[in-house]
Amino acid sequence: MKVFLKLLKYHKVILLIPILFIVLSLCIILLSFEVINDLPQIPKSIGRVNNTPPTEIFSADGNLIFTLGGCQTIELEKVSKNFLYAIVATEDHRFWNHSGVSKLRILKALFVTLLISDKVQGASTITQQLAKNLFFSFEKTCMRKLREFLVALQIEAQFSKKEILEAYVNQIPFGSGAYGIEKAAKIFFNKSASSLTLSEASLLAGIPKSPTRYNPYLYPDRAKKRQLIVLKRMLQVGFIDKNQLMSSYEQPLCYSHNNAKINSYFLDAVIKYLEKNYGSEIVYHGSLKVHTTMNSQIQHFAEVSMENGLHRLEKQIDPIYGANKCIDSDIRLQGAIVSIDVNTGAVLAMVGGRDFYETPFNRAIKSNRQPGSSFKPFLYYSAFADGKISPNDVIIDKKISIPIPGSGIWEPKNFGRNYKGPIVIKKAFVDSINTVAAQLVDKVGPKAVIDTAHKCGIKSKLDPVYSVALGTSGVSPFEMASAFSTFASGGIYRKPYIVSRIENINGQVLEEQVINSCNVLNPAICYQIVDMMCDVVKIGPGKIVRYMGLNMDVAGKTGTTNGYNDAWFTGFTTSLSTSVWVGFDKCYGMKYKCGIGVTGGTGAAPIWSDFMLKVTEICPSVPFNIPNNISFCMIDPVTGNKANFWTKNPIQVALIKEKSNIKSLKISNIKR
Amino acid sequence: MIWNGFRYFVPSISKKWSLLVLIFSILLATEIYFGWIEYLVGQWLRSHNDNRPELGVVWEIEHKKQIASDQLSKLINNRSSIQNGSVSFTHMLVSLSEGRGVMISYAHFVDFYRQLPKSVANKVFCPYLILKTASKQSWDRTYFEKIKNKINIYLLDSNNNILEQNNIKHDLLDFSSMVRPNFNGSIDDLPNFKNNVYSANVFFSVLSTLPENNRRNIINLPKKLINIDGEILRVGISDIFHSEKTIELGIEIEDSYGYRVVFFHGNLEDVNNIISIMNNWDKNSNLKSTIKQ
Questions:
Q1: What is the pLDDT of residues A336-375, one digit of tens each?
Q2: Which residues on A lie below 8 Å from B32 (Cβ)?
Q3: Residue of A nearest to B38 (CA)
Q4: Which of A39, A170, B10, B27 is the most exposed place for a label (fewest CB within 10 A)?
Q5: What is the pTM of this model?
Q6: Which of B9, B49, B79 lies at the smallest CB-CB distance from A9?
Q7: Which distant-in-sequence residues (6+ apart) come within 8 Å of A487 by Cβ?
Q8: CA–CA gap between residue A612 and residue A302 (Å, rounded)
Q9: Which residues of chain A make contact with B53, given a CB cutoff of 8 A?
Q10: By CA distance, what is A282's nearest residue in B?
């Protein structure tokens, strides 16, 4: 000490300290005058500023499934004391004593940051953090820091400590879309901030330091370690004792799983619809009440069926077949499912992929994949509507080549690469014979097929080429489910919709969905198509539906594209129309380990059946309505003649009464 | 004592400097303890708060909230003013903006439908169809929407299922036939109008100062007036209410064939409002017309 005093005695350095301090202060004052005009105005009230109820999205069964925007604030008195102690101990234990900035913390932070390499320490008080959260971006510049400093001083001068703490806890970012303790408590623990336990409160108090790094969903271990740090701080400050620390740390935490992940493809579609029609200001700050058509239970079934089905398929398929073309070996098999209420057009369930956060691309709506043979009902309807052929007419399944003007010769092949010779139209449809479909499109023209598809609800642009009848133009599962629901309802098209009603916070209606029905197809011809699709499920490539136990009236059509890139099954009952697509995003083929390709019947139909088996328990269906002018007849599947005792494997056809004379129209004389 | 102590550390320091250092030390110590500089700066900033810009996240949210609130109010008001404030079928249809719709009750629709002239009613829905739909007893509401210059009208049940629907091209609706035919003669020849006759200049000047919704409630088909040949001279307002909510307005026009009066239906409340504005105007400038201009 004496040595130190002696040193001082002979130096005038001590004089320099106040001079330096004054110069520094003057610099800060001048700089402050420079930034003062850019400082933001501080609102008159700060405690529960921007308190706005969020936009709430409800399912059709009345459950609140998601909230958007808004700011849920809570009075300080109602916040759990555990959380208040935890956050003050962790972030700023001298909060009640300082005047906005903590000079000791600044000195300590300067010391640590300047003298200890690779270590940076912050010195922000709760007031400074509040100033940053309310007014500033997160850029780290000296000017921003100075402004934040000055605003913090004003906040301290203008508001009480209680108001400041209230504002702070209502603005803290916790990640996962949670701003403020009330929303964080709801998201992470599905409870109000008033009832947080010490264990829960200490975990939440640790998150604001780095909401992503300490996110308990993503990094539970890190979050737990951070919780221990918070509890130790509380112990140091004297808010808790050792026993409380131990018991809180050891207490298992029960996180809420009611987060945005579930139903997110559906929600994503709803949010996009809202943004498009109302703009982001109204959607995120307008406190709307949005009633969707989603049935929570059916949506859950769809998600489970899709995941189980894809999981099963992934185990069965040959990874090499896809991987030898894949650049990324971790590309996962994807799928989509859309289920529509036939009687209203309401979309009850939608799954656009396996995991929204992994790939937010909504395959249910936005994908544009070839539907393959599942497009044939539009062709057959067009051919029947043309009036020259019926399900009982005979056609020759043979190798064909159709000259296309300007495009050379089109030679479609059958899936099995063989030809069956004479065959009735219905059997050709059930067996999905491409050469027959090609002859029909040659007869009616691609435009008629496209017109029928558009009438039924296909919105995608379809190429006016012959192969469109075999499903070579891309469509989405959403369109397919909608278009098949037109067949299910006897030819009535109902526009599909996902939002049924939107209200403002006072319950005044902004939008209501009108169930628009248009008769677009002839009911009798439509029934003939339905009847043929019923046989696809009974005896055709979709018979797995029956094997899996779905014994009610169902109709559907499988679809498989070249190289087994896409597997489709779209089918319906009288109450639900559902489309399932399975495939890789980058059009890699799917083959089983035994070398056989994955088809609509083996890849998509089991998922469809699994889903429909569960759903039909809550959405009962009735037999398909048979129009009065329809009669049934058993015929020979080869000759088309009326079946007798000796006919082998006769099939039943639905015929329109005025045309029901059994004939044997030979289309084989078509010049091909 | 303190002085001597200080001199002990810095013997060569002058008294003046020593005093300065002493004061500084006291100030520094009190600042560290009490934080009075922070307090003063804070208070000074507070006193200048109102002059500073509304910047930052909190204000951005506030502005967005305001925009959302304004837009929503506009949407709701527009919808409810059409829904509840429409005095006639015509009024409701011309008030509809593109892409928007409005829902009215079954009774409200029937009330409007009854007022329609036969030619227009047939275009909207055949009366037999209305009877048939009403007899089903499931008809609950009626929805109108304007899409691409077409008016879609849906008769709905309580679950919004469409019972009947019709599309009418907006232009095909002969709105002019929904009010009585023109009168050939001067407005002075119509006794119901003689108490409230205003010069066209005053009427349209006052009308132009009103909000768009109110203007539409008074003259719902301004294009009809623009298309008329001749000069608009005066505007008369009838003494007799046309219905509970409407009142008749007569526009006097002079052309090469002489005088004639064209009729409109205006919302009673809005027409009364414009009358009171015009009367106040009249007191100031004595513009109320008693003689033909």
A1: 999 999 999 999 999 999 888 788 899 999 999 999 999 9
A2: 103
A3: A153
A4: B27
A5: 0.74
A6: B9
A7: A377, A456, A521, A526, A529, A530, A533, A555, A572
A8: 9
A9: 38, 40-41
A10: B68
In residues, how long is chain A?
672
> CB B176: neighbour CB atoms within 10 A?
16
Structure tokens given for A78: 């109602």
- What is the largest distance, in Å, between two alpha-carbon atoms of chain A? 130
For residue A514, give the nearest of B41, B57, B160 by CB distance.
Answer: B160
The one-letter code for the residue type at A336 is: A
The residues in B 162-221 lying below 8 A from A, measured between CB atoms, are 162, 165
A517 contacts in chain B (CB < 8 Å): 161-162
Q: Compute the count of residue pairs across chains A and B with CB atoms less than 8 Å apart.
A: 159
Provide the pLDDT for residue A32.
Answer: 72
Q: Which residues of B touch A146 (CB under 8 A)?
A: none
Catalytic residue set of A:
91, 373
Q: Give the nearest partner residue to A41 out of B28, B49, B69, using CB atoms.
A: B49
**Quick one: residue A382, left, alpha or beta (phi over 0 = left, psi -120 to 50 = alpha)?**
alpha
Contact B71 A98 (CB under 8 A): no
The CB density around residue A5, as the number of other CB atoms within 10 Å, is: 10
Residue of chain A with shortest Cα separation from B73: A504
For A41, the closest of B8, B24, B52 (CB atoms) is B52
Top residue of A42, A73, A277, A506 to mutate, by most chain B CBs within 10 Å, is: A42
Burial of A90 (0-12, 13-18, 19+ CB in 10 A): buried
User: pLDDT, tens digit, for every residue of B92-141?
Assistant: 777 777 777 888 888 888 888 887 777 778 888 888 888 888 887 789 98
| Sheet strands side by side (includes A289-292) | A64-68, A55-58, A289-292, A499-503, A509-512
B65 contacts A36? CB cut-off 8 A: no
Name the residue among A344, A512, A505 with its Cα closest to residue B141: A512
Q: Which helix (H) or strand (E) holds A55?
A: strand A55-58
> Where does residue A350 fall: left (phi above 0), alpha (psi -120 to 50 degrees), or beta otherwise?
beta
Q: Give the CA angle between residues B129, B132, B134 to the nearest 5°.
A: 105
> 3-state SS of chain B: helix, strand, coil percent to 5?
55, 20, 25
Average pLDDT over residues B202-207: 87
Interface test with A, best of B4, B20, B46 (most A CBs within 10 A): B46
User: What is the rounded CA–CA span in Å between residue A177 and residue A179?
Assistant: 7
Q: Which of A658, A631, A191, A569 is nearest to A371 (CA)?
A: A569
- CB of B176 within 8 A of CB of B224? yes
Helix pair A264-285, B57-85: axis angle to 10 deg: 90
Encode pLDDT of A115-130 as tens digits: 776 666 667 899 999 9
Tell me if A456 sits within 8 A of A314, measured CB to CB: no
Beta strand spans in A75-219 (E): 173-175, 178-179
For B100: left if phi > 0, alpha if psi spans -120 to 50, otherwise beta; the answer is beta
* Residue with tokens 């989603």, as numbered in its chain: A294
> Is there a contact between A628 and A609 (Cβ–Cβ < 8 Å)?
no
Residues of A in contact with B160 (CB under 8 A): 512-515
Note the pLDDT tens digit of each residue in A301-337. Answer: 999 999 999 999 988 887 655 544 544 545 789 999 9
CB-nearest to B68 from A151, A153, A285 is A285
The H-or-E segment that residue A534 falls in is: helix A523-538
Q: Are B248 and B242 in contact (CB under 8 A)?
A: yes
Closest to A374 measured CA to CA, from A533, A495, A608: A533
Under an 8 A CB cutoff, do B58 and A41 touch?
Answer: no
Whether A307 contacts A90, CB under 8 Å: no
Q: What is the DSSP letter of B170?
A: G
Q: Are A248 and A231 within 8 A, CB to CB?
A: yes
